[in-house]
Amino acid sequence: MKDFNQNDLTAVVEADRAHVWHHLLPHKPLESSDPRIIVEGKGMRVWDQKGKEHLDAVSGGVWTVNVGYGREEIADAVRDQLVKMNYFAQSAGSIPGSRFAERLISKMPGLSRVFYANSGSEANEKAFKMVRQISARHHGGKKSKILYRHRDYHGTTITTLSAGGQEHRNALYGPFTPGFVSVPHCLEYRAHEQGLEGEDYGIAAANAIEEVILREGPDTIGALCLEPITAGGGVIVPPKGYWERVQEIVEKYDILLHIDEVVCGVGRTGTWFGYQHYGVKPDFVTMAKGVASGYAAISCCVTSERVFDMFKDAPEDPLHYFRDISTFGGCAAGPAAALSNMDIIEREGLLENCTAMGEYMLDQLNALADRHEVIGQVRGKGLFLGAELVQDRTTKEPADEKKVQAVVADCMQQGTIIGATNRSIPGYNNTLCFSPALIATKGDIDEIIESVDGALGRVFG
Question: What phi and psi values does residue 53 have, to the nearest 5 degrees?
Fold first, then answer.
């Protein structure tokens, strides 16, 4: 426990209750209970307004604080940059913007250009706009459809929701932007075709994408947008053979490949980017959360030179270039924080730690599954893991969503913050989600596992 000044914090709580509209949170309960205020963070720990300590197993609630809390060197880098030069529209460059772009591209062979923005939703919107402009200028407007995958999530704007494969998140926000077409998910645990597993299922799941392409007409498809590992849709690691077949398909039909790394990017899976586990060659890579570990707002839409060149081949045309702006893409704090964040990851060997601790946590979660029949499957890569809860392992009937949330609440009561799919996939909001910071130790993981073990026992008996 920390001893905070409760007089000051009481006023803060009341101001929050009266004036703050929180993200992803029903507010009716706050009429009779206090909103949670996170006052301080250090390493893997955060403290609320009551001084209670929590071990954060979801990196800021939404897979963001990859290098942990309280990193003074990132804060100092941001402060120093803001004093020297805080902002100018991205129509001009900045020193940290140029340096981070060069350093980022050095981690991404085959890609060459960085377009700065503010959030993952916005980065994905930039890629969608690029695809549409390429279609208009190079394909007579015909090759404009964008494919997205069921269970994937690409953002919260109306157009990114149009590419959203999570029905609950989309509910009530239509009508949506036309020209977005869904392809099936690739969760082997819930395979569309019974009797297939491993590489056979991976290839079949990818072939299902080709079936959609042929149905829609290959000459109408501009891009395929996929998460390398599905995040909020259930932490879905694609089966062996899937990505290799996807690469063949997009090359066969001249379809641009857009990889959404907003969650997986910058170390979360043990490589700089999730797609790098699979040898694919994207045309667009979008990223946000881990780029600066939440110390400043920044997102990037990274493209190949092939894509960039399609916007500069007709200078006599006044509409040939990408006529887009992101206001705070010009804030120098983001790339300054991102440079310092990358320094920490490299100096402390956090990619290697992520891989080692991820394997350890996967083993510990599988050991939990040996003790709790309610765990149907454990899956993940690096420190990005999920445990799908079921009522019956044979039928794979999903666990009741209220009980899944009760596990999350029990862990919170114990002082451990975990996540779960929530109001995303109708009938399948049943996966516990874990994404501890890349600095996690075996002791941290043991504490997380102990909390989940106790919560499962109390909620499911």
Answer: -90, 140
Q: pLDDT for 369-378, tens place per residue?
A: 999 999 999 9
Q: What is the pLDDT of residue 411?
A: 98
For residues 88 and 268, is the Cβ–Cβ distance under 8 A?
A: no
pLDDT at site 344 = 98
CB 197 within 8 A of CB 188: yes
Residues forming beta bridges with residue 390, ordered by sequence position: 398
Indicate if the pLDDT at residue 193 is higher than 70: no
For residue 388, what are its two tokens? Answer: 């799908």
pTM: 0.96
Provide the residue type at 389 as one letter: L
Distance CA 60, CA 177 (A): 31
HEC string of 23-60? CCCCCHHHHCCCCCCEEEEEECEEEECCCCEEEECCHH
Q: What span, in angstroms and rounded, lies between the C-alpha atoms of 74 and 67? A: 10
Q: For residues 353 and 440, is the Cβ–Cβ distance under 8 A?
A: yes
Q: What are the start-end ranges of the E strands in 353-441?
A: 375-380, 385-392, 397-398, 416-417, 419-420, 431-434
The full 3-state SS of 436-456, as one line of letters, equals CCCCCCHHHHHHHHHHHHHHH
Q: Which distant-in-sequence residues (6+ apart) come within 8 Å of 457 by Cβ?
A: 372
- Could you list the beta-strand ranges (E) of 135-251: 145-149, 180-183, 221-226
Q: What is the pLDDT of residues 372-405, one digit of tens each?
A: 999 999 999 999 999 999 999 999 999 999 999 9
Residue 1 has pLDDT above 90, yes or no: no
Q: Locate 356 and state its tokens.
A: 């080692």
The secondary structure element, H or E, covering residue 11 is helix 6-19
Question: Of 268, 204, 257, 251, nearest to 433 (Cα)?
Answer: 268
Q: What angle do CA 123, 251, 255 make, to 5 degrees?
A: 40
Across 142-263, where does the E strand assignment appear? 145-149, 180-183, 221-226, 256-260
Q: Is residue 36 within 8 Å of 264, Cβ to Cβ?
A: no
Inform me whether the pLDDT recorded for 189 exceeds 90.
yes
Q: DSSP secondary-structure letter at 109?
A: T
CA 302 to chain CA centroid, Å, is: 16
**89's tokens:** 């529209």
pLDDT in tens, 249-268: 999 999 999 999 999 999 99
Q: What is the pLDDT of residues 406-434, one digit of tens each?
A: 999 999 999 999 999 999 999 999 999 99
Cα 353 to Cα 287: distance, rounded to the nearest angstrom: 21
**Own/partner pairs, 307-310, CB within 8 angstroms, 24+ separation:** 307/113, 307/130, 307/134, 307/256, 307/283, 308/112, 308/113, 310/134, 310/137, 310/138
